[in-house]
Amino acid sequence: MKKILLAFLAIITISQFSCKKDCSCPPPIHQVAGLYIGTYLTDNVSHPPLFCSFVLYPDSTLIIKAKGNPPAADVVLSTGNWSLNGNAVTYTSKTVVYSSEVHQTGSFTYDTNSGNLKDGKWQDISDDSGYFYTGTFPTMERVN
């Protein structure tokens, strides 16, 4: 009985003086590198929002996969580089799977609260077919 009473007193004593977390956790800090999935629009051509994904790697390289605007290719793949200056994310890319070689630049605003990219814009800076398009990314949400 004495052992049970001592064990009970020990448990009560420990629970009264154990540490409690009284502070709230800070908001999460998102890394810019990651997978983003969204849509794109072209200013020069009317079409519904089309699928687009960005994989931003920690070494500042990127891969873009997009649904081509018919009658263009079904899938467009591009590789390139990205950089971060404050909350401004900029990129340059070159198509590796498409009917012509297109060089493109673009930009986003990185939302540190949600971890998403917003206010996305893109423009072709060279195209061996002679067409130069511009457009926007209406949505671009972080997946991981």
Descriptive report:
There is one protein chain. The chain has 144 residues and is mainly beta. It has one helix and eight strands. The chain has one helix at 2-17; strands at 34-42, 50-56, 61-67, 75-85, 88-97, 102-110, 117-127, 134-142. The longest helix has 16 residues, at 2-17. Mean pLDDT is 85; it is low at 5-9.
Feature tags:
144 residues, Porin, eight-stranded antiparallel β-barrel
Uncertain stretches of 5 or more adjacent residues:
5-9
Oligomer: single chain
Which structural category do the helix and sheet elements fall into? mainly beta
Major beta sheet, strand line-up: 1-2-3-4-5-6-7-8
Total number of distinct structural domains? 1
Q: What's the tally of helices? A: 1
CATH second-level architecture: Beta Barrel
How large is the radius of gyration?
Answer: 25 Å
What is the compact description of this entry?
With 144 residues, this protein is mainly beta.
